[in-house]
Structures are given as C-alpha cells and as structure tokens.
Amino acid sequence: MLSRVAENLYWLGRYIVRAENTARLISVHSHLLLDLPRGMKLGWSPLVDILGANQLFAERYGDEWSEANVVRFLITDAEHGSSVAASISAAREILRTVRDSTPRDAWEQINGLHLFLQEKGERHLPRAQRQTGLDRVTDAMLLMRGVLGANMSHDVGYQFMRIGMSLEQADMTTRIIDVRTVDLIQSKTDELRPFQHIQWMSVLRSLMAYQAYRRHEKIRVSGPAVLRFLLQDRGFPRSVTFNLNALANALPRLPAYRGSERSIDRVRALIQDASFDRLLERGLHEWLDEVQIGLGKTHEALSCSYFQPAPSTVSTQSQSQRR
Question: Which InterPro entries would you find in this protein's record (predicted)?
C-alpha cells in the first residue's frame, strides 16, 4: 500500500471520531444548562480549550466568548480545522480519493452530511434547532463506523483507519477529562458545591459513558471512580486503556511497528500506575499533560514509520489537529 493511501485512511479514522466527539460535547454542554440551579454560571470557553484552539478563536472572534460564537466556531466555521463541518469536509475529501478502498455507502453517507452542513448548518446553530443538527451528525458518524467496519475488508488499509480512530478517541477522552474537570462550573460559593456530581455526570455523558459507568461501578458518581472508568477500564470502547489496547493489537498487522509499540507501552504504564485519589488532590492537569504528550509521541512514531521519511516536526500541542 502507498504511504499516501495509508496516511489518508489513518486520518479518515481520526476525522470521523473527532466530528462525533465534538458534536456530542456541544450537545451535552447545551443540556447541562438545564441541570444547573439558578445563579450558577456556565462558561463556553472550555469547549474551545478541549480542542486547543484558543488562539484561533481569539483571532476570529476576539474576546467575545458567547454561546453563539463558540457554537459557530465548533460546528460550522470552515477556518477552524477541527470544527464539525471541517472534519466532515476533510473526511469526505479523503473518501473521494480512496473510493477503491472503501464501501460506496460510506461515500454516500459522508457526502449527504457534508451537503446538509453546507446548506442548513447555520440554521441549526440556535438552541431551538441545535440538537436536531447535532443528532444528525452523531448518528451519521456512528453509521459510518458501522458501514466501514462491516463492509470494508479488514486488510492493512483498515488497520490504519482503525489505528487513527483509536488514537483520536484516546486523545479526545483525555482532553475532555482535562478541561471538564477544571473550572467547568465557574462558581466559588459553598452553596453550589453539592452540585459537583453534575459536573462528573457531564464528563461521562460527553463520552456517552454514563449508563456503562453505572452498570460497571454500581456506585454513586464520584471523581476517582469516573477517572478510573474512563482511563483504565479495559472493556469500555471510549476509555483510554481500551483504545491503547486496540491500537497495540492492530500494530502487529503492519510492518516495522516496534517504535510505535514502545510509545504505547509507556502511556499504558503511566495510566495503570496512577492513583486518582491523589491526583485529584493535586497534579491531575500535569499528569494528563504527560499522557497527552505520550499520545503525541505515538502519533509521531506512526508518522515516521509509515507516512514520512523524516521525523515529524509537528508540535506536541497540535498533534491531533491536521491542517
């Protein structure tokens, strides 16, 4: 397989997962407004923090961190490479160039969603219509994953796409945990501290993990338990450990994978040795930075092994954003 085709399939997997997670994140954040008591201020800037796009947002919208600006930036802004519309457009372009390697149904699905966002995306930005548009995106991305998994030959090309999906999901999960557990609810009053569990529930719902968590943990939602589930659980498809294991299982089907395997093992060891009770008291943000740097190095190892003749020059801060 040509390295260009392999790289395209890798990024196809990443764009599909990124679009779905971004749409779900906006949806959960919008619903969180209904769960909070009066007097509690909910900021929209954390959603931009999760994607690491603060500088670009400031260039386009200045200091206006309003709901309308953030929602437009994350859903339809074509200048933002990680917006829902930009991710769908990039995935569509990749599918157009690798039609011989992917099912026709996948092209029809992504093309229909691309046209929907172009023609009606702006109409679905206000709260009254937003959920309808976001549901269409998440449903389409889940259907895309099903079509590709069920109808695409599980050859080397499929493994590259699977690796991209797994790495992107691990990266998005750590980003959501990192930002959503710090200053999501902007309040310092003692009266509102009992509502802290709502914050942890929103973390789970941002990753479609609330029902699975309750079934698995069988205890009330709490910080350490949520972190253990989303980071260490081996059976939940959106946990970091699950995706690192899926990534490691796919690598042996590719040639010359040893460098990538070592970087994955280092991240897995970092996660398995963590004590989340202590990290919540101090150092969670710094620890998650280490995990994200490890994921960035995994991307670099894959890129050097299969896509580029020389070491990647992409900064670790922007590993998950392809321009």
Answer: ATP-dep_Glu-Cys_Ligase-2, DUF403
